[in-house]
Model the fold of this input.
Amino acid sequence: MWARFLLLLPCFTCLFWSITFLLQWKTNTRSRKIWTGTVFVMGISTFIWGYYMGGIQDHALFYKVEVLEIFTTLLFFPLLYFAFKSLTSEEPFNWKDYLWLLPAPMIAISLMTMYAYMGEEQVVVYMTKLVENKGDITAFTAPVFQFHHFVSVSLYKILIFVQIFFLLVLTTIRLVRYRHRLDDYFSTLDDNSMRHQYALLAGLYVVLLLALFTCRGDFYYNGDAWFVQFTMFLWAAALYFMCYHLSRLEYTADNLASDLVEADWAEGNGECVDANEQYNVIKNLLPLFNQIIDEEQVFLQNNLHLDDVARVMRTNRTYISRLINEEFQCNFSDFINMKRIEYAQELMRTNPDMSQEQIAIQSGFSHPSSFSRTFKRQTGVTFRDWQRENLF
Done:
């Protein structure tokens, strides 16, 4: 009983979160709606894996289930990519994205065609021997059986590996680029923390690693029972972890795009000029920029946005972003936080009795914890260590 429950635990987890997200459909973000479909498809796959690992009893049903398993497993990797893309980019999906979906129907149709060619009776005999001999097909020499084994085992594993590799690379790159976009717009990310996105990426790494073991392959003909059950438990834990963090995530690339559009509309930004004119405009803005930074100290404003600086200078954020990148070789967030830390250091020198919380707030940080992280990143030492080395 418990063994069967553990084998089906990932399926139950997917079912729970599918229902949870469906009940919140009207208020769901685009990424969460895509994730709802992804979790549902993963639930079908993990149910079939549990069926395989629990022991194949009905060989007549086995080949029909195999087609569904291959289709859903090869489908949920592209769906994971779509979910991560919607988290990190407001761009619509294009034809190149939809190419990810092709392997699933192509392999499934190929297998159905071969099964139709073999005939029901011959397929059942073939599958029975295949399972009893743990994948050994030496008794079947006809080309159709050899081709079936290549498609359903070798090609299937190759496609799984390729999809996992590209999924890991592309999702990581997209998350890094999205973080850079945030840093170019926000001075601090306290209200738009990346922790849920990073947690999702960590969960994805675990899920894809487990997929290498459990996508039929090694468990296809029943491995060690305890190892199988433990692996399926890890599957359930990783899926729950990812779904939980997605449910807690409120700020995505769509929200960032909306913020940028609203800022453009409010400020009337959007003029198009050539590269030479942009260069001249940026050079002319530099003295004013230095003035509002060094004299007016706008960096002390809590939750400062790039548009706030652009508004003060009566220009658009594109010019300010380029100015910071070209003149100071950093993004907006790093530049503002560098100025805040410099101000905090001077504040500590002139007011050594001030508490860390007071220094953090007066330096423009929302929380002392954010101040501590930024201080360590900017100076290479902790706040307390810097105090001991410079004040005592």
Observations:
- The two ends are 66 Å apart (CA to CA).
